Amino acid sequence: MSAPTPTAPSPFTEQAMPSWRRAVLKVGSSLLAADGGGLSPRFALGLAQFVSAHVQAGREVVIVSSGAVAAGRAIVPRAAEAGAAMAARQALAALGQAQLIALWQRFFERPVAQVLLTHDDLRNRRRYLNARATLLELLRLGALPVVNENDTVSVDELKLGDNDNLAAIVAALVDADALFIATDIDGLYTADPRSNPHARALDEVTELTPEVFAMAGGSGSSVGTGGMRTKLEAASKAGAAGVETYLFNGRSAEVVRGLAQDRLRGTRIHAAQTRIAARKSWLRHAPVEPGAIVVDAGAARALADKGASLLPGGVVAAEGDFRRGDTVEIWLREDSGQRRLARGISQYSALDIRRIARRHSRDIESVLGYNYGENVVHRDDLVLL
């Protein structure tokens, strides 16, 4: 569905946004594509100012940006038309990626980092952890990650996927508190406002029911791959991970300026539960690999009483043959035997853990020749049983 023209007053009521620490901003192709082909800074500038305002306030933002294919089409305009062979579109994506990153870099003094992902990267737990570690390190270094699908090699993703859902997955990946979806519409309506004069603007959605999904129409843009329904699907994924979603009109300078001040004119879609609760629930019910990490009483007290991460110094042994990124149980070794204490995502394989058990975190790299951080299991990836 489409909203009224961007120059018209927004039918959505301004509302204060909850506080957030880290967010993902998804920017659609319709906001970046120039009328004659290629990329335009017209709307990107305001969105970049929104990002800069929050980064200067001490918050962190990851951008998920479409637009590579549109940029590539301007470089080689006759290479492919809409509906052309997949290989031609992949070539356009490869040509356009550099243009897309250059567009974003021009707005920021801080370095912009390109991160290309496929859904396979995010389904595979070990590659998921590697992607997570890279993005968090980029944020720690003060860089601005710009994420896009790796369209040049991901045939299925380019044909069937969309960056709305990728943004939701990235929001869960980096433990974001908020997912902002910038598009060319004002937000969600009860019906298509172009054809139904009684369509109402929805400032807030507390639950994504089948009735809410029925309100969504198709894509209103010739350059994008998703419509309002994919945005609701993305909000559903984000909400399951405890991340709230905000839909807003990225073409409205007034709306974007308001967001820089934590004021929303658009649709707020509530999360099903808190981010921490969602992650802990997933860990509690996720299938575990055979084997376990065995800890001593001191480590058990730190985990249970202090909510600490599991460090190698408190590890007694590793049983089984699990790998980095696997969800495993954590057992407490006592005089009477071993009992289940917790479960979590291991940052190291069982073989590596045997080598670093009882060692200080600073010794990990000298023992293994590499390190994935000082924790064997991070507290955010751990739940007590």
TrEMBL record:
Record: residues binding ATP: 26, 183-184, 225-231
Catalytic activity field: L-glutamate + ATP = L-glutamyl 5-phosphate + ADP
A GO MF label: ATP binding
Alphabetic keyword roster: Amino-acid biosynthesis, ATP-binding, Cytoplasm, Kinase, Nucleotide-binding, Proline biosynthesis, Transferase
Cross-referenced InterPro entries: AceGlu_kinase-like_sf, Asp/Glu/Uridylate_kinase, G5K_ProB, Glu/AcGlu_kinase, Glu_5kinase, Glu_5kinase/COase_Synthase, Glutamate_5-kinase_CS, PUA
UniProt keyword annotation of Cytoplasm present: yes
Binding site for substrate: 66, 151, 163
Keyword rRNA processing found: no
Every PUA domain range: 291-377
Pathway: Amino-acid biosynthesis; L-proline biosynthesis; L-glutamate 5-semialdehyde from L-glutamate: step 1/2
Protein name listed in UniProt: Glutamate 5-kinase
